Structures are given as C-alpha cells and as structure tokens.
What we know:
35% helix, 6 helices, alpha/beta
Amino acid sequence: MFRFQGMIKQVMPALTPLSEAAFWKSCAAEINDNALGLRLMIPGTEEFSQDIDAALIEKVTEKISRDFARFVKEGFVRICGEYLWRKRFDGTLLMKPRRLSPWCKEQTSIDLVGQDSKEENLLVADCNSGHLKTSFADLKALDKKCEALPIKNSVKVHRYLFSRSGFDDALVELAQTDPMLHLVTLEALFV
Length: 191
C-alpha cells in the first residue's frame, strides 16, 4: 500500500531465511510521510528522528511482524509454482502437469494443484511461508484437503511441501521412505 503512495523509498526482499525478528532487525524500510516531512526507520537500526513517536514505531512494527506470513503467502506460492515449472521443463519433475493453480472449494483450499494430461498423476503443494517448521500435522492437513478433490481413486498423488523455515524430524524421516512426498526448503527454491 505504501509503495503506491510513494512512501517507501527502499523495499527489502520479502523472503529471507531469517526469522521475522531477525529480518526486521537486519534491514529497514525507509518510509517518508511527505505531508509531514518525517523520516522513519523501522526498529532494528538506531537512526530515528527525534520527532517520531517511539510508541507509533513499535505499533507499526508489531503489526507488520504479526501479519508477515499472510503478506508474503501469495508471493511465496508463486515462487513455489515457478520452482515446479522449472523442474517440469528441465525433466526432473516426476510428472508433467498441464497447469498449476490454487484450488478452493467452500472452506477447503490447496495452494497449488496440477494434473497430467492422462489424469493419472496429481500434484498437490502446500507452501508454508511462516516462521514455524512444517510438521507432520501439516502433511496430514494437506492429505485431508485432498479428500475434497474430484479425482479418481487410481490417481497417484505427488505431495510437495514447501517451507521457508524447514521441516520437523518426523516429516524428514517420512520423506526418506515415501517417494510421493517431496520436501522443498527455501534454499532449494533458488538453486
């Protein structure tokens, strides 16, 4: 919102392997309020104008930090989709989906779904852009959502879990024995 009002001079990358706290501590977005001529740096640096109310700065920072995952979710899903397309076209994706898109029915949604032209394989992806590790419970939630998909029982379901913050040990262990489960870290997205 600020970008379109000409208030942000510098925008730092939304996706980073750092936690939200470390992200806001290590970088700052400079916001200019042209009407009042104020200069503000997000906390994490010591460069504050004397005219800025520290409580206001704290309130803005708290709001941004609290909703960080929601703000970057859409972009993270797009990055995950681009990763899958790169894998499809370089021949390393085990199936060739015709297209990938979010899927939603009533209260159930899946970040990315794609099916091959023969309708023998289905790709489903959950893209976790939050600060918590993706867990076995997240996989079970994805499996539960897949029950709502209108697919044949004979379809092979390739499950992709993308996580900005990594995976818990139980999930990593399961992925080593389940060839239909693929775990993709933030670092792997940019290789």
